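pasting for ref
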Amino acid sequence: MSVYVSGVGVVSALGDNYQEHKTNLFKLEEGITKNSYENHGFVLDSYTGKVQYELEVPSQYEDETRNFKFAFKAFEEALASSGVALNEYKNIAVCLGTSLGGKVAGQEALYRFESGDYQVEAELLEKSTVHHIAEELMAYHNIIGSSYVISTACSASNNAVILGTQLLQDGDCDLAICGGCDELSDISLAGFTSLGAINTDMPCQPYSSGKGINLGEGAGFVVLVKEKEKGRYGKIIGGMITSDAYHITAPKPTGEGAAQIAKQLIEKAGIDFKDIDYINGHGTGTQANDKMEKNLYTKLFPPTTLISSTKGQTGHTLGAAGIIELINCLAAIEEQTVPATKNELGTADFPENFVYNQKRKHNIKNVLNFSFAFGGNNSGVLLSSLDSQLETFPSENDVRMSILSSAASIQQGKESPVEYEEVSSPFNNFKSLRFKGATPPKTINPAQYRKLDDFSKLVSVVTAQALEGSGLNIKKLDTSKVGILFTTPSGPVEVVEGIEKQITKDGYAYVSASRFPFTVMNAAAGMLSIMFKIKGPLSVISTNSGAIDGIQYAKEMMRNNHLDYVLLVSAHQWTDTSWMCLGQLGYDSTEYIGADYCSVQVLSCQPTEKHPIILGSKQLKYKDKNLAEISSIFNQSFQQLLSELKLTPEDIKGCVWNERKKIDSVDYEFLKQLHELYQIPNLGQNQFDFSSNGAGEELDFIVNNNLSSGYYLAISYSKFGGISFAIIKKYSI
């Protein structure tokens, strides 16, 4: 069986639909132009791949961010071109890669807050979340299913396609809509300018003498199906993610992480390096990246494999880069033509198989698409033409993951190396527990620790605790067999807001170059890979339901990469702006105490009768449903999982959900009725002194409390619509 691309949609500086984008791509049209950006009187002139045309969206979305409009347009085109009818599919997964999500709306909210406006509209605050775009796209089409908003910086949308393919092959969905989006933003422009990474003289020149990148914007989506007759553009053969464990911003010069991807994809496909006809490289136009890629491709691939980078036309579109360039690969297959690298500086001794300034006709069946990102995240996707003999990597054997250990920054009755201080809002009734500091264990390099932001410090200390509790010696493990799955609603918000405020005071070019890398959602996870030398796959999802949303992804990661262990890391951070958000979004200040919180579960692929086992999980995303509809949605999914496990509701001894996360929402009201509906008591009632927006406290409670042997239900839910749950089997110790 194979996974086929049935629909394609794209918005870029080259065009607002696939046909226009493709035509201009092969004509080598210039998508990068010089544009001006303004913030509080500071002006930045920069070459960017700016989308110059207005995008029409339904009237209810006229006030949405540009990022949402890009995504909406590409999403709709992909669906329309696919010809699929959504109502024919029962289990749909939406996988979206983005660095920003709605952060531009968040910047507007922050500036209003800083000016003394504590009544920012709830609608704007909702738009500011990283996961909002995916949720709204699903709501528009009344999709009830799973949503994975992947935020691994520049590899995000490539990783989204990898996950969607795996979910399809493993039978965890029957339709996957995968893509990515990012718009040009002040924080990205300022950050890369401060790093000195921007080419200020001209549009970027990939695979040249390397004067720097230019940022771009846009979106792309592909519709993935398993029905051969619906395949129209090509096949996804498989993908892989690795971590350099080297540096937060620079690629490892040897390119070994990317090389591992190429070797394993080719081996798994049963082909040779000479069978790869075209590589769309990351090709940023920076010396460090382009030199690494030159060495990598020259060492592994023969002269018959043609190579180019298309960023010289679109700019670096960050979270959208992977999907836009994957669509360029599909266009190359469709036209049997390699798009050229736009370059005016010369080839700098690059070999003849690097294609410059003139498209080249070529027999193309098999293509590799590479994306690399901050944090040392490497991602590669292998694609083939419809007439290729290659088939998508087959479904892997299922795994049941045991929880070797669970550690958290706040634990009942246990001392923690993490110090907190209770802080009260000066303008409303909310309180929060803020991270004050921590004593890192000996397993963490003190010099590395000192350079971290507070969010990463919190995460690193708790991860070290979990590893110690697991009994694993990370230094003696093959860490290419260890993965990291990180979940967070909003990531390092303190650093993000700090950079955004600094722009207003110092201008674009003078924000902190040392702090900017820690603004990306995968910074903390990337630092974990560096500190503990973990070289396996790493991914980050933005979710308001926390760790439970990450369980299925961790499972896919483990079974498709033959991993021994996965670190399931969940974390949340608060700022003063959070108080405003809580009040405006309908949280109850008499119950809700937000905490800077982190929990880490060390998952193993070898279940034992000593450790709790995750038997299964479900993720339900929806919007604007009434109580009866939510009850029906939950019951159907819950009963299905129970049936698969040959269990009944009577077998569940108790559930755990955090009632302190009290919200004016229908989901909260439904969970309050859970005991009445299923006779399953909430063991977490009156047990939590805080709420983290689902950052794993439910799993930690089940693992670390003295519960009798049996089956337990961990539940988390989102203010923005959705309930996620997992069934855990626990053994008495």
